[in-house]
């Protein structure tokens, strides 16, 4: 029997500020845990990595009918639909589909989301970062989330997709609600607002697609509309779903990467100095930031057959949480100092922050580029950067990040 004191409890006071003691307790006491809420959670690196590559499902429809995941998804679909004429794309993104649907969707998106197109963005990213750092210097500090971590990835994905500036504020507001659909346990009071945001975002994206069809541009959205493989194209519903996924996942996760990683550097000033003195460490520093405080803390799989792990059998149709953040702190892989930030850690890239298997994050190269440019330039410009007060966490379990990060620029 599991020790009741080490149950995964994301609602415990202080959990979202620092979940890592709870994850360590899981790894040491019950690394394959059947939770009273009706799901399983894996916390060791070996088990998490194997599950991500196992070929089990991501589609909530494969869960048992009375499971928390199925009930939550059904509640989402029934929650106060305000826009009755809007198409519904819930569950159509590649994040929610299994092969062969996932293979087809990912293949079409990957045709335009290429390493070359990502690499070509570096001068634009550098310009955005330098402008942000100039504002930080002029004010002798400020909120690093508001000045740097949020605007950079938001501007980049907006430019990639060719989204007009007039739509940015509304999309930013809606995506802040939509990101909550990635939480493992939803707040019932948030279902109706999230559903309205989802439908409103679909209306905006549908309008943008219509505009791009009438006036094609040199952008990702135009390329997605035209993307074809063996005569196959994205349907209108699929196109809307992928664009929303790219927008929400394409900037919220990178906000967390830059924000969480910078906070870790500020709390270990020796590592910040190391990065300042040796700028070429920036590439590995980003991998260590991804490992140390994962911007996405969990992934999911639904078992298609009984699954043996850690001496236990998880039944078919079970919702299983892969504890990415816990796996990244596993001492068995990263050593006795796994709970410490080391920008020169030799095996930092063994993290699982981008998932694994067929669902490995398509935007990994873009996130790495944005974070590398941001932290390299930040460390070079402000070797004496320091906290100006307590940071505030966003209260999320999965896309756990900072709402504010007050700093003094020195």
UniProtKB/TrEMBL annotation:
Signal peptide: none
Keyword Cell cycle attributed: no
PROSITE patterns per UniProt: CYTOCHROME_P450
A Pfam family hit: p450
Keyword Iron set for record: yes
PANTHER family (alphabetical): CYTOCHROME P450 YJIB-RELATED (PTHR46696:SF1), P450, PUTATIVE (EUROFUNG)-RELATED (PTHR46696)
Protein name listed in UniProt: Cytochrome P450
Organism: Catenulispora subtropica
């Amino acid at each position: 029997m599991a020790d009741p004191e080490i149950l995964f409890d994301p609602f415990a006071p202080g959990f979202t500020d620092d979940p890592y003691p709870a994850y360590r307790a899981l790894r040491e006491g019950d690394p394959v845990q059947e939770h009273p809420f009706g799901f399983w959670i894996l916390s060791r690196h070996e088990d998490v990595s194997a599950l991500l590559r196992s070929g089990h499902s991501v589609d909530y429809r494969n869960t048992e009918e009375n499971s928390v995941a199925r009930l939550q998804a059904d509640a989402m679909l029934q929650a106060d639909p305000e826009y009755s004429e809007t198409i519904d794309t819930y569950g159509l993104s590649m994040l929610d589909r299994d092969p062969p649907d996932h293979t087809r969707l990912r293949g079409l998106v990957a045709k335009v989301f290429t390493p070359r197109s990502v690499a070509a963005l570096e001068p634009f990213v550098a310009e955005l970062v330098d402008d942000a750092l100039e504002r930080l210097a002029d004010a002798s500090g400020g909120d690093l989330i508001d000045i740097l971590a949020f605007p950079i990835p938001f501007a980049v994905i907006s430019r990639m997709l060719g989204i007009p500036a007039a739509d940015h504020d509304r999309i930013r507001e809606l995506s802040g609600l939509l990101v909550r659909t990635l939480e493992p346990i939803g707040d019932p009071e948030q279902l109706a607002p999230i559903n309205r945001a989802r439908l409103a975002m679909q209306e905006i994206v549908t309008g943008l697609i219509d505009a791009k069809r009438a006036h094609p541009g040199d952008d990702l959205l135009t390329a997605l509309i035209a993307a074809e493989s063996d005569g196959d194209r994205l349907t209108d519903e699929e196109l809307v779903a992928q664009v929303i996924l790219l927008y929400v996942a394409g900037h919220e996760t990178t906000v967390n990467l830059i924000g969480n990683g910078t906070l870790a550097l500020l709390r270990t000033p020796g590592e910040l100095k190391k990065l300042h003195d040796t700028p070429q460490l920036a590439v590995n520093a980003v991998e260590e930031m991804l490992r140390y405080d994962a911007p996405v803390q969990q992934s999911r799989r639904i078992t298609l057959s009984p699954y043996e792990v850690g001496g236990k059998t998880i039944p078919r149709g079970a919702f299983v949480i892969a504890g990415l953040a816990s796996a990244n702190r596993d001492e068995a892989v990263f050593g006795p100092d796994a709970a410490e930030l080391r920008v020169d850690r030799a095996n930092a890239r063994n993290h699982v922050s981008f998932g694994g298997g067929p669902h490995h994050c398509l935007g990994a190269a873009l996130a790495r580029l944005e974070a590398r440019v941001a932290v390299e330039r930040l460390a070079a410009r402000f070797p004496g950067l320091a906290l100006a007060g307590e940071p505030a966490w966003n209260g999320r379990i999965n896309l756990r990040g900072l709402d504010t990060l007050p700093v003094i620029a020195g």
